[in-house]
Amino acid sequence: MNQHTDLRIHLKLQPEAAAKLIEFQDELHSRLQAAFSDWLVDDPDNLRIVTCHPVIDDEIQITWHIDDVHEVRSDLTDDQAWTVLQDIKRHHDAGIGINWHVIENAAERLYGESPDA
């Protein structure tokens, strides 16, 4: 089993800085990739900026990770699991939300039935 370490950084920025950061997101990704290229597992593309958006103090966010996708579809690669999450985000239905069935259905739509089925 390959092991790796996830580095997660949470920055709480002033509103004017956050707005500039959103515009700066591609350059930020390039700079982080250059800074950490020697440390990234296998491939410099293993760096993702997961979220970069203004947060209102009276809101919540629920986070789903590729590990959650692997819970229902262990046959998928990390990249495929990430694609499942991105598909769920694009087709999000607020009346249903995101749950294990939504993840399973998206994975099946994208990659067919699980070999374990």
Any overview of this molecule?
The protein is mainly alpha-helical and 117 residues long. The protein folds into two domains: 8-56, no CATH class; 62-117, no CATH class. It has five helices and no strands. Helix 3 crosses helix 4 (78-90) and helix 4 (78-90) crosses helix 5 (100-111). The longest helix is centred in the last third of the chain and has 13 residues, at 78-90. The protein is globular and about 50 Å long. It starts with 14 loop residues before the first helix and ends in a 6-residue tail after the last helix.
Search tags:
117 residues; mainly alpha; 45% helix
Distance from first to last alpha carbon: 24 Å
Secondary structure tally, helices: 5
Q: Pick out the low-confidence regions.
A: none
Number of strand segments: 0
Tally of distinct domains: 2
The largest sheet, given as strand count, sense and whether it forms a barrel, is: none
> Helix/strand/pairing class, anyone?
mainly alpha
Compute the CA-based radius of gyration: 17 Å
Q: Give helix % range.
A: 40-55%
Query: Residue-averaged pLDDT, rounded?
Result: 80
- Work out the strand percent: under 5%
Helix and strand arrangement:
Elements: H1 15-23, H2 25-36, H3 66-72, H4 78-90, H5 100-111
Helix pairs in contact: 3-4, 4-5
Quick structural gist:
45% of the residues lie in helices and 0% in strands.
